[in-house]
Fold this sequence. Notes:
Strand order of the largest sheet: 3-4-2-5-6-1-7-19-18
Number of strands: 19
Shape: globular
Number of domains: 4
Helix content: 40-55%
Strand content: 5-15%
CATH class of the largest domain: Alpha Beta
Oligomer: single chain
Largest sheet: 9 strands, mixed
Low-confidence stretches: 505-532, 537-552, 644-664
Distance between the termini: 48 Å
CATH topology of the largest domain: Rossmann fold
Mean pLDDT: 82
Amino acid sequence: xxxxxxxxxxxxxxxxxxxxxxxxxxxxxxxxxxxxxxxxxxxxxxxxxxxxxxxxxxxxxxxxxxxxxxxxxxxxxxxxxxxxxxxxxxxxxxxxxxxxxxxxxxxxxxxxxxxxxxxxxxxxxxxxxxxxxxxxxxxxxxxxxxxxxxxxxxxxxxxxxxxxxxxxxxxxxxxxxxxxxxxxxxxxxxxxxxxxxxxxxxxxxxxxxxxxxxxxxxxxxxxxxxxxxxxxxxxxxxxxxxxxxxxxxxxxxxxxxxxxxxxxxxxxxxxxxxxxxxxxxxxxxxxxxxxxxxxxxxxxxxxxxxxxxxxxxxxxxxxxxxxxxxxxxxxxxxxxxxxxxxxxxxxxxxxxxxxxxxxxxxxxxxxxxxxxxxxxxxxxxxxxxxxxxxxxxxxxxxxxxxxxxxxxxxxxxxxxxxxxxxxxxxxxxxxxxxxxxxxxxxxxxxxxxxxxxxxxxxxxxxxxxxxxxxxxxxxxxxxxxxxxxxxxxxxxxxxxxxxxxxxxxxxxxxxxxxxxxxxxxxxxxxxxxxxxxxxxxxxxxxxxxxxxxxxxxxxxxxxxxxxxxxxxxxxxxxxxxxxxxxxxxxxxxxxxxxxxxxxxxxxxxxxxxxxxxxxxxxxxxxxxxxxxxxxxxxxxxxxxxxxxxxxxxxxxxxxxxxxxxxxxxxxxxxxxxxxxxxxxxxxxxxxxxxxxxxxxx
Length: 697
């Protein structure tokens, strides 16, 4: 098992839970896996597929996901294929023939194709060893991403009772988990739940004010970084994309209003690192295996925490830091309220309201945001300070807004509870609008009483009072402000009103002194519960580096850039995303460990035997060329220290300098190591020394 892990995937160790899950699958057990994005779910069925006879059938909801995973597997030397509508009749037939000849180890299909009689007939002719159902939460109507076609997968256990099923998802509440297991008829399965804590994700909530300016300022410092900006509507996506492009940013849109070809093209360009920013609706992202997303911005309020967690989870899949920024506005909440009101079934409507309230609580929380997210999924964070959210890294300002609350309540009373937030705030700020004059509201005692605050601030206070149950909004299309249960308590001075002031700083949470630790986590003890559930407290965001050294070396950023450029050229030539060649984590280790032969290159995480044969020589040559360039620089620096030879010397200037350089060999080695910032064996510097100098030792 470990041999296969190293050979095809380039890792020497498993992440928490993976080995136990794989052993259960190999023993023919049904398994349910709840593991966050980037936690290594795919390996839980990909590795068993290589160890068993026959073919593993992988159910995947999106064509793009199938192609990405198949491309990645093929790059690792694994025979994989997919059947979907993008293939011609001839191509589909060829894959079916290969399946019957046992030439394919993994086949990816969509749920609607899998349940066709022709597909099931194909399965009867081949040896299927496992059904792997990815994004399995889609089968539950209680989930945030219910897909009716997934319900048809219930046929699998009835038709193939002896073939094990592994169901996998990154987001599922206990209710969704139980429903998924029930719908797939795998009751009694072994259930594994990994920690939802993605330590490399940094969470921040900002007020939705001057939002575009905030985004531009944020992006200016990250021009070479890849990121996703989520919006709730197609219109917002198009408008924001247009503005960003005019401001000089490389951005593309993605939403259901675009043609299939346009969506596919934009997604492909983004995945291949040919564009840095994708502005998208929530239609984008499921199954997008792009590991180097460095920021995820929510321009609009998400409708539930499951969606928010899943969308932010598309960042930092390589284990490196990713900034997750949510722009919060109570106005967005009321827009979502309107759509919730249109839901016909009362039970679904109330469930949607409850989920939205969880989002509001998250945004307005004065406690750790990571703690709130984890608690939503049934996990408790023990640390008081997570070190990776704005609440923990930046002090939260709490202001007393009792007097402002009294003034608002007074104004609502004076207008007979018949007007909305906009009209009430215009009265308080002394507007001279035609409507104010016609209604005689310029003669109210509350008129102009709130000119010391801007109108949008009064609107924020009004919405906060609604949130706290002091005022309420009635009506969906034109909601009116009404007094609520605690209004009189505030007027009577029996209740104070406090408000949290959201940070408006554009400072990155990755600023010096605020970086979160992404050190590898030690595996926690795994316990078996009566429900046959295995939960692990923490999950590593990166596989353990195969090469363990006693010193911590600095990355050679110049070499890292060269390796990225080389990777880009190879990927472009092969027509695949760069990460399929090597992930950023692999390149960073190369630029830190400086491998100089095949044995050392195999020590790099993500370098297996297949990739070593395919890419080893070209990457080792690039590293050696880089070292030669550094050594030449060191030679020149040493030469300058020697100075020029005296004209009366018996040697000419050139000969004198070269002899002095030979005498300063140790200084040359020191300077070379200093330039590299790493512990590199002397013998390799000697080889480079010999290549550069016309003299031998």
